[in-house]
Amino acid sequence: MTPAELAERVRSRCPDTVVARGDVSTIVDRDDLLETLAWLRDDDDLSLGFCCSVTATDWPGSDPRMWVVYELRSIEHRHRLRVKVGLAEGDANVPSVSSLYPTANWHERETHDFYGIVFEGHPNPRALMLPDGWEGFPLLKTEELGGVNTRYKGAFIPPVDTRTTTT
Amino acid sequence: MADAPTASASGRQTRIDPGTGEAYVDERTGELRQETMIINMGPQHPSTHGVLRLLLELDGETVIGCAPIIGYLHTGIEKNTEYRTWMQGVTYVTRADYLSPFFNELGYCLAVERLLGIEAPPRAQVIRVLMNELNRISSHLVWLATGGMELGAVSVMLYGFRERELLLDIFEEATGLRMNHAYIRIGGVIMDLPDEGVPHIERFLEAMPARIADYERLLDENPIWLERNVGVGTLSAEDALALGVTGPMLRAAGVATDVRKDEPYCGYETYDFEVPVGTGADAYTRYRLRIEEMRESMKIVRQCLDRLEPGPVMVQDPKVAWPAKLSVGPDGIGNDPAYIRHIMEESMEALIHHFKMVTEGVEVPAGEVYQAVESPRGELGFYVVSDGGHRPYRVKIRDPSFVNLQAVPAMVEGSLVADTIATIASLDPVMGGVDR
């Protein structure tokens, strides 16, 4: 299926579907997410049964504040689709898709670590990439780059950018 | 004391006290003790390929539970790219999966090039394919060497690293570095192949078939290798697909999929090569596939050498191309002295342009793309978002090691501890890519 044909087929259920730079992407409402993904996965023409990745982007000051991004792939039909769900400021939760795509388990845990998005119904919602007890969500745009204060065996190590001066 | 059976009703082996020859019995309840043991394998363990930690629940020698714990090598590569120019991003992503740096560079650059709407010139495309396939061989050699060592095949380790050294020499000659090259850049590659590069690769292609035949003679019918690998770490196609497993792991389960064939990039559709597929779905099949993949990569490298025709290796658009020229000096690769003289002494405009490109760099139109390439470990994807500025807004690396590692519990639960080692080896995870 060409990107245009795929977009046409997806549009029958998700009107907000566009083709840009060869990628087909569609915007889905949070409440319809699971049903839509089940349809995309099980429809014979689409059979998007392979979830490549789940991640998010953060846009402070915009509405929606965050997008959760699912990259789906059909191995049989050799096409791809991006599914995006917008989340409003202060409402960072979305249903977990790991019941449909078991591979989403770790992707969702990582996305929670980095963005603080809560994946409701996740079977194992523990920290994956960050240490237990880590405060903050480092990939939010409001988090500065430059490291964090570290305490190790009594030593205090300040962030990299405040550690040395060049003057 | 009750008679000590050797197996319980459930078929589970009971533990016999080696001192008394009697079964361990719980003194309080009078029943056979059935508790399990939890051990940590890693994060510092010679056979976990870096800082992978596995929490294993053991019943005797049998693994009944497994939880991979990752994140020890998290370096914030994705966050860092958001604070650098688009061109500097190459230097960051190349360090993710450090055994396949050219793949990281290629995936990132292809994604950015799609956002820019440009394509690298033909010679650059051929050099990209050439370097990628050499890199695939070098990565598989590390897998063979480390995997062999973990199962006691130490001669294979020495051979694997010996041959990899030949490839690293080629990489060093062309890029200046053995790893983390930052050679593939947005719009092409940073410099052309050196004069002695092609003959050097030719010599490698001549030497390699006999070396691969050696590995096969050592391992293919080696009783220990078969005992440790055949039927070990099995993962069915259905499970692999559900868990998002790609690459040789998925192809070993009989699913013929390869991004180079399914969604060709850099002209892969014009190269003649096969994608080896197996049906055993076990560690041995993965071994066979990777050996065959090395042969197929050599076929592609041969075709690349035949196709190399003179031409530019970087797009001509001055708003995209890296301004500096590199050359090999007595102390390695660095800025070309003639170019330095040009910008410092001859042309103010060239200096301004150089300064602007290096500090600010290319401006990428707003948008988002997902670009996949076939790395030695599977689908390596880059989801790149631009807000129209001089820096990436978001770079998400979909690393195949990260996803494949999720399948470890499915593969090792129910098997022996020793098989865990063989299973991890057959998965070929690179923690730099897993943790990023």
What characteristics describe this protein?
heterodimer, A: 167 residues, alpha/beta, 5-stranded mixed β-sheet, two-stranded parallel sheet, 9 strands, 29% strand, elongated, B: 436 residues, alpha+beta, 3-stranded antiparallel β-sheet, 10 strands, 45% helix, disordered N terminus
Q: In terms of topology, how is this protein built?
A:
The complex is a heterodimer of chains A (167) and B (436).
Chain A: H1 3-11, E1 17-20, E2 23-27, H2 33-42, E3 50-58, E4 66-74, E5 79-87, E6 93-95, H3 104-115, E7 118-120, E8 150-152, E9 155-157
Parallel strand pairs in A: 2-5, 6-7
Antiparallel strand pairs in A: 1-2, 3-4, 4-5, 8-9
Chain B: E1 37-41, E2 53-59, E3 62-69, H1 77-81, H2 86-93, H3 101-116, H4 122-150, H5 154-175, E4 184-185, E5 188-189, H6 197-219, H7 223-229, H8 237-242, H9 248-251, H10 259-262, H11 283-307, E6 326-329, E7 332-335, H12 337-346, H13 348-359, E8 367-375, E9 378-386, E10 394-398, H14 400-405, H15 408-412, H16 417-427, H17 431-435
Antiparallel strand pairs in B: 1-2, 2-3, 4-5, 6-7, 8-9, 9-10
Helix pairs in contact in B: 2-3, 3-4, 4-5, 4-11, 4-16, 5-6, 6-11, 11-16, 12-13
